[in-house]
Specification:
With 569 residues, the protein is α/β, with parallel strands linked by helices. Among the domains are: 269 residues, Vaccinia Virus protein VP39 (Rossmann fold, 3-Layer(aba) Sandwich), CATH 3.40.50.150; 50 residues, no CATH class. It has 16 helices and 14 strands. The strands form three sheets. Strands 3, 4, 5, 6, 7, 8, 9 and 10 form an eight-stranded mixed β-sheet that branches. Strands 11, 12, 13 and 14 form a four-stranded antiparallel β-sheet that branches. A two-stranded parallel sheet has the order 1-2. The N and C termini lie far apart (72 Å). This is Methyltransferase-like protein 17, mitochondrial.
Length: 569
């Protein structure tokens, strides 16, 4: 480039900069002039409207922010229970890595993924599964074969009369590889046979494949030996710890003065409940009672507490005791009883019923139940809640009527009678004591579940989740408390789904204190007291600071109509 051309280019660039600078200064002066002009009251229509005489200097207190909009937000305000990504305690993480060094990493990753997938998807056929099967089967019969009403009714009667039985087989980690080989062989045979089939048979076969009938032998009991226990430690410890810590965190936030002294962990497994309880309640707990039928699981849990197999090393959390079976007697009780991902391990309904009744009888204050966030886990919690409520009603009715049970007449001691007399209520997540609005399978949109981000396990670090650095654990939980619900309890509604953020408003799906599912729309103008908190602080699973007696902070409350003469809400 020549010197003259370079000089002309520099002059043009300088002229452009000068023009941009002059236009920017003119814009600033224009804004400064019009910002000093305030609207006069004569320009505001005050005839029969609520928009007249608007007092802009009126300030309302914003929940979790105070009066000043520039004040620091309060992340510890009541109703906020969500936690950021949860990581394992340093000592637990170190001891777990030391334990997993004994085994080949590739084997740990494969076994961990298989076990985690089986635990999540092994579920026994639920009501939702049967409902989907019936609907798809009936619709395809109508569409493909133009069946009449009699055939549809016959199909429904056959499906309703079918009974679900639970197989007593045991799950083995080697079964997945065998199933893959069998499926490949079956697919090869099908490909050879399909050459001779007609078009109608192919369409009928596709219809059958698309509408699979729930298998009765889906559920299989897992015997946790050394290999299964190690696979569980390589895949499920962060998720189990994160979900338990989230639930205990809510209890400690809502009851800050509550300090339990004894805790029982039913189905303790690797002992993640101990670490979560110690994280929140510290040294106030004087006794931890762990109950798990698997001896290798108890050995792994003790290794994580000691950091080795030597008994000379002290326990990181003192006063921990292990048992393999639940005591029959209910004379020894505990302040907090927790069953984390345990009810799904009990295959039979009668066994679950006895376990739930025994756990409730051994509880002094809180009974905490945590399960997977799918339909199966949610229905297990519903069953537990209905069992306890039903037994309470029966015992209370007998006491009011003055009747005695057969065992009491014969002079025998009933194992649950004295304890179930104590009343209880749902502490969380339901803000009410009414019937669960999602209990009906016909009206349920999806199970009542919540999410918590946790660190990646060893089995997930070499997957596509590595770029995110965390995994989202979906869980359902139920916290029951002994006693009666206090009148001073705020009973704020619970946020059941992620909040939908719009430009000038937001939409929340909540479970209200009257036992109904509602969809609330909050605006910045009419809900200025809680709008900022809900938009920036509230998350899925928190309580919404909106009691029943809440009054919207409207400006000029004496006006009852809007500008257009409509009633003001």
């Amino acid at each position: 480039m020549s010197a003259n051309l370079l000089w002309k280019t520099r002059i043009l660039s300088c002229k452009r900069c000068l023009v941009l600078q002059l236009s920017f200064q003119a814009t600033k002066q224009h804004i400064r002039i019009f910002s000093n002009v305030s609207p006069s009251k004569s320009n505001i229509d005050t005839a029969g409207g609520g928009g007249g005489d608007r007092e802009d200097n009126v300030k309302f207190e914003k929940y979790a922010y105070g009066m000043d909009q520039f004040s620091k937000k309060d992340k510890n305000a009541p109703g906020l229970f969500h936690l950021p990504t949860i990581h394992l305690p340093k000592q637990l993480d170190t001891n777990l890595k030391e334990y997993l060094k004994r085994y080949p990493r590739k084997m740990l990753e494969n076994d961990g993924r298989k076990l985690s997938k089986h635990l999540r998807n092994r579920g026994r056929p639920t009501e939702m599964t049967w409902k989907k099967y019936k609907e798809s089967k009936a619709s395809k019969r109508l569409k493909d074969s133009a069946a009449n009403i009699d055939e549809i009714m016959k199909l429904k009667s056959e499906q309703e009369n079918s009974q679900v039985t639970i197989a007593g087989d045991e799950y083995d980690l080697d079964e997945d590889d065998a199933e893959v080989q069998n499926k490949n062989l079956a697919s090869d045979e099908d490909n050879q046979g399909d050459e001779d089939t007609s078009a109608e048979q192919v369409s009928e076969k596709r219809m059958i494949l698309n509408t699979k009938k729930p298998r009765n032998e889906e559920y299989k009991v897992i015997r946790y030996d050394v290999r299964e226990s190690t696979a569980f430690g390589a895949s499920r410890i962060p998720a189990s710890y994160g979900a338990t810590l989230r639930v205990i965190h809510e209890i400690s936030r809502r009851e800050p003065d509550y300090k339990p002294e004894t805790l029982m962990d039913f189905g303790s497994g690797t002992g993640t409940v101990l670490w979560a309880a110690h994280e929140k309640w510290g040294d106030s707990i004087k006794e931890y009672q762990c109950i798990d039928v698997s001896e290798p699981m108890n050995t792994l849990s003790e290794f994580l507490l000691r950091g080795g197999e030597s008994y000379k090393k002290p326990l990181h959390i003192p006063h921990v005791y292990y048992k393999r079976f639940l005591p029959v007697s209910n004379k020894v009780t505990y302040d907090v009883v927790i069953a984390s991902y345990t009810l799904s391990e009990i295959p039979h309904l009668a066994m679950r019923r006895e376990a739930i009744k025994s756990l409730w009888a051994k509880t002094n204050d809180f009974l905490v139940l945590i399960e997977y966030g799918n339909n199966e886990g949610f229905e297990l919690l519903l069953q537990a809640r209905q069992m306890i409520e039903k037994d309470q009603n029966i015992v209370n009715e007998n006491r009011n009527d003055g009747t005695e049970t057969e065992s009491s007449k014969q002079g025998q001691e009933t194992p649950f009678e004295d304890d179930i007399i104590d009343e209880g209520f749902v502490f969380a997540p339901c803000p009410h004591d009414q019937h669960c609005p999602r209990a009906d399978i016909e009206t349920r949109d999806h199970p009542c579940n919540f999410e918590q981000q946790v660190q990646l396990s060893l089995a997930e670090k070499r997957t596509s989740l590595k770029k995110w650095g965390f995994v989202t654990e979906c869980f359902s939980y139920l916290v029951l408390k002994k006693g009666r619900r206090e009148e001073s309890d705020k009973s704020w509604p619970r946020i059941l789904e992620p909040i939908k953020l719009k430009r000038r408003h937001l939409i929340c799906k909540i479970c209200s204190s009257n036992g109904e599912l509602q969809q609330k729309t909050l605006t910045k103008k009419k809900d200025s007291d809680i709008y900022k908190c809900v938009r920036h602080l509230n998350k899925w699973g928190d309580l919404l600071a909106m009691p029943q007696d809440r009054v919207r902070p409207l400006k000029n409350p004496e006006r009852t109509t809007t500008r257009r003469g409509k009633p003001r809400k």
